[in-house]
Design a protein that fits this description.
heterodimer, A: alpha/beta, Rossmann fold, 2 domains, 6-stranded mixed beta sheet, elongated, B: alpha/beta, 3 domains, 26 helices, 58% helix, 7% strand, signal (chain A), secreted (chain A), vWFA_dom_sf (chain A), Hemicentin-1-like von Willebrand factor A domain-containing protein (chain A), protein serine/threonine kinase activity (chain A)
C-alpha cells in the first residue's frame, strides 16, 4: 500500500473506566462506543482501526490491573465483541487511574503511519490528584530527573506520578486528539476530563451529549476527509515540484492559494510532507 | 486614573477588540455592559472607534447607543457621527435601536431627518445615495414616517425620476441601442458598477472599460469576483485597467486592508493580481501605525495548533511591514524553530513557515529560552497559542530567566487560538508581568485591531488617547 492510500486512515483507541462504579453506566458506555464506531464508519470512506484500553486503579485499591490494552482486531466485529465483553469490577476509592489509561493508550496503540488519531475517554470518576487538572499547584522545588512535568503536592499525585501534563504531552507528541465522555456531572471529573481533552485540542461532553462528541469527531473527519481527492492531487503536485510551496502548488492546481495552504496543512500534520521538508 | 477604573476600561477595550463581527447580538451585549460600567469612557471610546476602528457592527452599535444615551453630550455626538455614515449603516442603526434596544429615541429620528434633508438639498448627493442604496433610503423614510420631498418621492417611491436625475439616466442606459451609447452614458454620469451592470444586457469590453473607469479602487476590489465572472480579467486592456485601480488602492485613504486580502482569497485570481492585492493589504496596514518596539512573534505549532500556524503567517505579514524596531519569529512545540521571512508580504511568510507542520507536545517557554541563550532582547512578545503547555520550560519560568539575564521586561500579548485555557496568562499575572490577551475566533478582519495595541508603549497610553478624543458637537444648535 502506498502512503497515498494511507490518506483515509483513522486510528481510534477507546479508553474506558471498568471499575465497579461504572456498573450502572457500562451498558450505556458500550452503546456509545459502538455508536461512535458506526458513525465514524458510516459517513466516510475511511480505513478505520480501533483499539481499546481498560483502566481501573493502582494497588492496594485494585489488584486486577491498572490498565489493560486490547490491540486492534483484523475486523471491527471482533472489537465490537471485546467492547460488549467489558465488565465493571473493583476500583476501591473514588479516583481512578484515568491518567494511566490515556497515557497507556497513547503508548500502546500501534498508530499507523500518517493516520488521523483519536482517543475517546469514557469514565465516571476523576483521576488521582483531584486538583491536579486545575494546574494551580505550587511550582516544584526541583524537577525530578527525567521529570514528568510539574509535581503537585504528594497527596494529590497519581501513585505512578503522572500528571495531566504528562498525559497531554504523550498524546500531542503522537498527534493524538483526545475527546472525553463524562458519565457523571461532578465538577472534579468534568474538570479533569476537560483538561485532558482540551490540552490535546479535543472536547469533553457529558454522556447525555454523547452525540455531540461523536458529532465533533465526525466534523473533524468531515473536514479532513471530504477533501481527499483534492489532497491526493496536492500531494502529487507537491512531490512533483519537490517542495511544499503553496504558491506553486496553487498555480499548478489552478486553485486559490488559501485552498492549497489548507490542503498542505492537512497533509503536513499527518507527516505526508516530511520527506519533502527534509529534502 | 484609579487602578480599578483603569482595569475596568482595559477590560472594555479588550472586549471591544476581541468580539467577532457579524454577530450583532453578541456585539450589542458587549456594548450594553460597557455603557453600564463606565458611560463617560464609553462616549470617548465610541468617537475614537469611529476614527480608528474597523468593524462595522461596532460602529453602528456605538452610534445607536450614543443616540439613546441619557447624556445630552452623547446624544449630540451620536447625531454628528450618524451624519457621517452611508445610508445602509444609518438603516442598520435604526433597526438596531428598534429591535435590540426596543425603542427609537426622538434624538435618533431628528438625526435621521436631518440626514435625509441634507441629501435632498443637494440633488447630486441625493441621487448617488438613492442610486447606490435605494432600499436603505426608502427604509429610512418609510420606517420613521419621514415625508420625502417632492424630488425624493418621485425618485424613490413614484418611480418617475425627473430628467436631471441619475435614476433617469439608468433608464436611458437600459434603453440605449448600442454598447457605445451605453458606455457614453456610464462615463458621462460616472454610474456605479453594481447599478449599471444590471441595466445593460450584454457586457462588451468597451462597456467594461466604461464601468471600471467609474469605479473607485475599493469598488474594484469588492467586485473582483463579479468582474472575473464577467470575463474582465481575460481581456488584456480591461485587465490592465483593473491593475491600475488596484495599484491606486495601495495609497488610497478609503480602502480596507483586509477586504483586499479576502478578495484575493475568494475570487480565485491569477498570481499577479493576488500579488497586487497583497501589496494593497500591506500598504493599508502600514497606515494603521508603526511598531517602534522590538517584537518577538512566537507561534505554537504543537499537535493541536494547526490553526495557529496559519495565523502566525498572517500576523508575521501584518506586523513585519510596520515593525520598525525589528521582528524576531519562532515556531515551537517542545523545541524552538526560528522563522525567517525574506520580505514582509504574506507570500514571504507563507514560504518562511513552509516547512513548519503542526505536531509534538507543547513547551511555550522553549522559544523564549532560546532567545535568552542567543541574547535576543525584545520589548514585547506576541504569543500565538492555546496556552495548553505541558512540557518544561514553561513560559512564566522562562520569562523570569529572560528578564533576569537580559535585563528587559517585555510586555506579552497572548493571541488565543482554539479551545484555549488561561494558564499562561495566570502564571504571568502572578509574576506581575504586563499581559494582554486577544481571542482569535477565525475572523481575519479583526487582526488589524492588534496594531494599535502593538504600536503603543502600553495599553494605558492607548486609554489616555481614547479619553483625550473629544466628543463632536452639533453645529446646528
Amino acid at each position: 500500500m502506498s502512503d497515498n492510500d494511507a490518506l483515509n486512515r483513522v486510528d481510534l483507541c477507546f479508553v474506558v473506566d471498568t471499575t465497579g462504579s461504572m456498573g450502572m453506566f457500562i451498558k450505556a458506555a458500550q452503546r456509545h462506543l459502538l455508536d461512535a464506531m458506526d458513525a465514524l464508519r458510516a459517513g466516510h470512506d475511511i480505513d478505520l482501526r480501533v483499539g481499546l484500553t481498560e483502566y481501573r486503579d493502582h494497588p492496594p485499591q485494585e489488584r486486577s490491573f491498572v490498565t489493560r490494552f486490547h490491540a486492534p482486531k483484523p475486523d471491527l466485529q471482533a472489537m465490537q465483541k471485546a467492547i460488549n465483553a467489558l465488565k465493571a469490577e473493583g476500583g476501591g476509592d473514588a479516583p481512578e487511574a484515568v491518567f494511566d489509561g490515556v497515557h497507556a493508550a497513547c503508548g500502546e496503540m500501534p498508530w499507523r503511519e500518517h493516520s488521523r488519531r483519536f482517543v475517546l475517554l469514557v469514565g465516571d470518576a476523576p483521576p488521582h490528584g483531584a486538583r491536579a487538572h486545575e494546574r494551580r499547584e505550587e511550582a516544584p522545588e526541583a524537577e525530578p530527573a527525567g521529570g514528568r512535568g510539574r509535581r503537585s503536592r504528594a497527596a494529590d499525585l497519581c501513585p505512578c506520578g503522572l500528571t495531566v501534563h504528562d498525559v497531554t504531552a504523550a498524546a500531542e507528541s503522537r498527534n493524538v486528539t483526545v475527546h472525553a465522555l463524562c458519565m457523571v456531572a461532578d465538577a472534579a471529573t468534568v474538570g479533569a476530563f476537560t483538561a485532558i481533552a482540551g490540552g490535546t485540542g479535543g472536547a469533553c461532553a457529558p454522556a447525555q451529549s454523547a452525540d455531540k462528541i461523536v458529532g465533533t469527531m465526525g466534523a473533524v473527519l468531515e473536514r479532513e476527509f471530504s477533501s481527499l481527492p483534492f489532497d491526493r492531487e496536492t500531494l502529487r503536485v507537491a512531490r512533483g515540484i519537490g517542495e511544499p510551496d503553496t504558491e506553486r502548488v496553487a498555480e499548478a492546481l489552478g486553485c486559490p492559494r488559501v485552498q492549497a495552504a489548507a490542503s498542505l496543512a492537512r497533509l503536513g500534520k499527518r507527516g505526508f510532507l516530511d520527506a519533502l521538508s527534509a529534502a | 486614573m484609579q487602578t480599578f477604573e483603569r482595569d475596568l476600561r482595559l477590560e472594555m477595550l479588550n472586549s471591544l477588540l476581541t468580539t467577532p463581527h457579524r454577530k450583532l447580538e453578541q456585539v450589542a451585549d458587549v456594548h450594553k455592559e460597557m455603557v453600564g460600567m463606565d458611560p463617560i469612557f464609553y462616549g470617548h471610546l465610541a468617537v475614537w472607534y469611529q476614527r480608528s476602528g474597523d468593524v462595522r457592527d461596532h460602529k453602528e452599535v456605538f452610534v445607536g447607543n450614543l443616540l439613546a444615551s441619557d447624556l445630552p453630550e452623547h446624544r449630540d455626538a451620536g447625531f454628528v457621527l450618524l451624519q457621517e455614515l452611508p445610508p445602509y449603516q444609518v438603516a442598520r442603526v435604526v433597526d438596531f435601536l428598534k429591535t435590540l434596544r426596543g425603542k427609537l429615541p426622538r434624538s435618533a429620528r431628528t438625526a435621521v431627518t436631518r440626514y435625509l434633508r441634507k441629501r435632498e438639498a443637494d440633488p447630486a448627493f441625493f441621487d448617488r445615495a438613492a442610486l447606490r442604496q435605494r432600499k436603505a433610503m426608502k427604509h429610512l423614510y418609510a420606517s420613521l414616517h419621514i415625508p420625502p420631498g417632492a424630488r425624493a418621492d418621485a425618485v424613490l417611491f413614484k418611480d418617475t425620476p425627473p430628467p436631471d436625475s441619475l435614476a433617469h439616466v439608468i433608464k436611458a442606459v437600459a434603453k440605449a441601442e448600442t454598447p457605445a451609447e451605453q458606455a457614453r452614458l456610464i462615463v458621462e454620469h460616472n454610474l456605479p458598477f453594481t447599478i449599471a451592470v444590471g441595466a445593460v444586457s450584454k457586457l462588451t469590453p468597451t462597456l467594461l472599460v466604461a464601468l471600471i473607469n467609474a469605479m473607485s479602487p475599493q469598488e474594484v476590489i469588492n467586485n473582483l469576483a463579479s468582474l472575473k465572472k464577467r470575463g474582465a480579467l481575460d481581456h488584456k486592456e480591461v485587465k490592465a485597467l483593473i491593475d491600475q485601480k488596484i495599484e491606486r488602492a495601495a495609497t488610497s485613504d478609503r480602502v480596507s486592508a483586509y477586504k483586499a486580502r479576502v478578495a484575493s482569497e475568494v475570487a480565485d485570481l491569477d498570481a499577479e493580481t493576488q500579488a497586487r492585492l497583497e501589496k494593497v493589504t500591506d500598504e493599508q496596514v502600514k497606515k494603521r501605525g508603526r511598531i517602534t518596539k522590538s517584537t518577538a512573534l512566537l507561534v505554537d505549532k504543537s499537535s493541536s495548533m494547526e490553526n495557529a500556524i496559519e495565523l502566525g503567517k498572517r500576523l508575521g505579514a501584518l506586523i513585519s511591514g510596520i515593525a520598525e524596531g525589528g521582528l524576531t519569529a519562532y515556531a515551537f512545540d517542545t523545541a524552538p524553530y526560528p522563522v525567517k521571512a525574506k520580505g514582509d508580504t504574506l507570500g514571504d511568510w507563507e514560504r518562511a513557515f513552509g516547512h513548519i507542520r503542526a505536531g509534538g507536545a507543547t513547551s511555550v517557554g522553549c522559544a523564549l529560552e532560546a532567545m535568552r541563550l542567543r541574547k535576543e532582547a525584545v520589548e514585547q512578545i506576541i504569543l500565538v497559542t492555546d496556552e495548553e503547555e505541558n512540557t518544561s520550560p514553561y513560559f512564566a519560568d522562562a520569562y523570569e530567566a529572560y528578564q533576569r539575564d537580559l535585563s528587559v521586561a517585555p510586555n506579552v500579548i497572548i493571541v488565543r487560538v482554539g479551545n484555549a485555557s488561561t494558564w499562561v496568562e495566570q502564571k504571568l499575572q502572578e509574576k506581575r508581568v504586563q499581559v494582554d490577551t486577544f481571542r482569535f475566533e477565525g475572523d481575519y478582519y479583526s487582526l488589524p485591531n492588534l496594531v494599535p495595541l502593538l504600536a503603543r508603549p502600553s495599553r494605558l497610553e492607548l486609554l489616555l488617547e481614547i479619553l483625550d478624543t473629544p466628543l463632536p458637537e452639533r453645529d446646528d444648535k
